[in-house]
Amino acid sequence: MKETFIKEVLTTKRTSHNFTLLGWIKSKRESKRTVFFDLCDSTGEIQLIIEKSVVGEDVFELASKTTIESAIEIQGKIVELKTKREIAVTSYKVVSKATKHFTPEPRSDFDIFDEKLANQILSHKHMYVRNPKFMAIQKFRNLLMYHMRNWFFENNYIEIAAPVLTTVPLYRDKTAIPLKLHDQDLFLSQCVGYYLEATSMAFERVYNISPSFRGEESKSKRHLLEYWHIKAELAFGDLEDIIAIVESIIKFLTEKLQDDPEVSEIFHLLKTKLCLDGLKTPFPRISYEDAIAFLNENGCNLKFGESIGSKEEEEVLSKKFKSPFWLVGIPRSIEPFPYVIDSNDTRITRVADLIGSNKYGELLGVAEKIHTIEMLDERLKEKGLEDDKRFEWVRDVHKTGCVPHIAFGMGVERLIRWMMNIPHVRDTHPFPRTFGRKITV
């Protein structure tokens, strides 16, 4: 088993120690008597110096013929220079020789966000996950999810293993991905809300982190066919409660990531900065009705009841705010049936969407959910679902002591994209499923 990693060699005080390192060749330079390798592993990279006079002619010839991306094992000692450390190699062995090559080289320093390279990267993502910049994004994702789970644990939430296969989509059937299993028509989950709703009547505070799927075509920079969803539901709460909870989560995550030294290294490599707008709580709000008026004053043409969802509309609206902001009071005609109708204005629901700063669009949604069977049936009828037997188990929950409850749902990739100032959600996922592309990996 590998015992020593490059990061340890770069920071150790034992400079005279003979190290054994295993890793991959990132790049290579050579002369008649010396070969230079940049060796990398999961923790970093370091330059190797392989001299013919030290390792012998046979080993030197083997090293000179070793290709980029080959895996090797070396032994050597640290060479301390003014600004960096290198390893003078005393022993060299090839673990696995690379025989296939890609352009650009997977670990080389190129712009991973360059649209001209998008097709090459997406077609060979199984190789480009090795790129240090993609690795940095995944390390950030790992840290974010670590802190997210810690927040749930510290606030007494129970993780619920909700199913991916479901009989009922949250939205219309045509927006879900259908499949047939044992002669039964099913869907890949769009949202685990129905299952969290049921379990919240037992555990009160529940959450789920799992994939969600959408079937309708969308090629925007914040949509994927398959994405990861953070969902939570709480018994006994209202819209103000869930807004405050989400704001505390965003602030908590921003503070934790801001103070993490590894995050600083990640952004140094990517040459960008962590978005700190999540610290500006409470976030401002704008009603849907006022948003429509503002948009129409600024060149849009929207009527009450139409969705504010296009890139252009959200960007225009973002000009009004210097932080994330809440869009509240969304019409019932737009929202799915499980959400409470506002008693003060029955045209709208007790729902709010959080729109990201810097023109990053919608990040997440929060809602008060219906708890009475009467309102549920009213909304089912309104959506033309009153005779749909698939929802009987959802109705059962509402007929047996269902209490007022609240929920939020956020896409992991959207959150990462916003916090990292990344152009496209596809770059936040190691193996993205994008619309219009054949799945090959």
Give a description of the structure.
- By secondary structure, the chain is α+β, with helices and mostly antiparallel strands.
- It has 2 domains: 6-96, Beta Barrel (OB fold (Dihydrolipoamide Acetyltransferase, E2P)); 125-428, BirA Bifunctional Protein, domain 2 (2-Layer Sandwich).
- Helices cover 31% and strands 26% of the residues.
- It has 14 helices and 16 strands.
- The chain has helices at residues 6-11, 52-55, 57-65, 118-123, 125-128, 132-154, 193-203, 239-258, 261-270, 288-297, 311-318, 373-382, 392-398, 412-420, and strands spanning 18-30, 34-41, 44-51, 71-80, 85-96, 158-159, 165-166, 177-181, 184-188, 205-213, 226-235, 285-287, 325-328, 351-356, 361-369, 405-411.
- The strands form 3 sheets. It has an 8-stranded mixed sheet, sandwiched between helices. Strands 1-2-3-5-4 form a 5-stranded mixed barrel. A 3-stranded antiparallel sheet has the order 7-9-8, with no helix packed on it.
- Helix 6 (132-154) crosses helix 8.
- The two termini are 29 Å apart.
- The model has no long low-confidence stretch (mean pLDDT 95).
